[in-house]
Amino acid sequence: MIGTGELHELLAMHDPYVRPGKVEELAASFTRRTYRKGEVIISGKGTCTTCVFLAEGFVHAFRTVRGEVQTMWFGEKGDLLTSYHTLFKNEPGDETVVALTDCEVYSIDMVEFKRLVATDLEVAAIYIKVLEAGYSFWENRFLIRIQLAAEERYAEWLTRTKHLAQHIPLGILARYLGIDQATLSRIRAKGGNKGSEG
Questions:
Q1: Alpha carbons 1 and 23: distance in angstroms, whole number
Q2: Alpha-carbon span 126 to 17, nearest angstrom
Q3: Could you tell me whether strands 50-56 and 80-81 are parallel, antiparallel, or unpaired per DSSP bridges?
Q4: What are the beta bridge partners of residue 104?
Q5: Which of 48, 63, 79, 177 is positioned for an S-S bond with 83, CB 3.0–4.6 A?
Q6: What's the rounded Cα separation, in Å, for the pair 173 and 62?
């Protein structure tokens, strides 16, 4: 059985009231695993079978459309990584999650996770908090894209996630923010934050 201290910390990021005793029960359903930088954690091909809580490191989630990478989001400690299309609809997903750095994760079989959500109120409470955070993220991202100018979009992103900047290639970040790469390069140079090039 895996240690429960770190797992409790991760689940408490979503629900601070989760009991240590409940985490001990859940630990038997989780597996701890290491992914190296560049490794695929969630494949965008086929039906996803796992739900993964990120314990350490940063990840890049994207779809590939007509050969072009479309960044969906960047993940960090505490985030739930999975194919939400599979989680919600039991259908194959097309979202790939790749490690931007070396990562440590706690994974649970998706069928088991969904069973726990349906039968255990404490797990359901964690799941609800995950969904609430996800909704808030996408609503905020939509509003930022339609309301803020390019420089403001980058400044807002940097304020929230400066610790991620050095791990994300310029081209990927530009597409994520909806900013021309040359424009983003000028914005970064002006602000004195070079981040990761490429």
A1: 12
A2: 9
A3: antiparallel
A4: 34, 56
A5: 48
A6: 12
The radius of gyration computed from the CA coordinates of the chain, to the nearest angstrom, equals 18
DSSP 3-state of 10: helix
Considering the entire predicted model, what is its pTM? 0.87
Digits of tens for pLDDT over the chain (198 positions)?
Answer: 577 899 999 999 999 999 999 999 999 999 999 999 999 999 988 899 999 999 999 999 999 888 888 899 999 999 999 999 899 999 998 999 999 999 999 999 999 999 999 999 999 999 999 999 999 988 988 898 889 999 999 999 988 888 888 899 999 999 999 899 999 999 988 875 555 544
Structure tokens at 74: 């960047």
Beta strands in the chain (DSSP E): 30-35, 40-42, 50-56, 59-65, 68-75, 80-81, 96-99, 103-109
Give the residues across from 30 on adjacent strands.
108
Q: How far apart are the first and last CA of the chain?
A: 41
Q: How far is CA 137 from the centre of its chain?
A: 11
> Encoding tokens for residue 131?
């969904």
Q: Which domains does the chain have, with CATH numbers?
A: 5-118 (2.60.120.10)
**Nearest-angstrom CA–CA distance, 38 and 42:** 12
Half-sphere CA count of 106, side-chain side, radius 13 A: 24
For the chain, where are the alpha helices, taking DSSP H only? 5-12, 20-27, 84-89, 110-119, 121-147, 150-161, 170-177, 181-191
157 token code pair: 């992103």
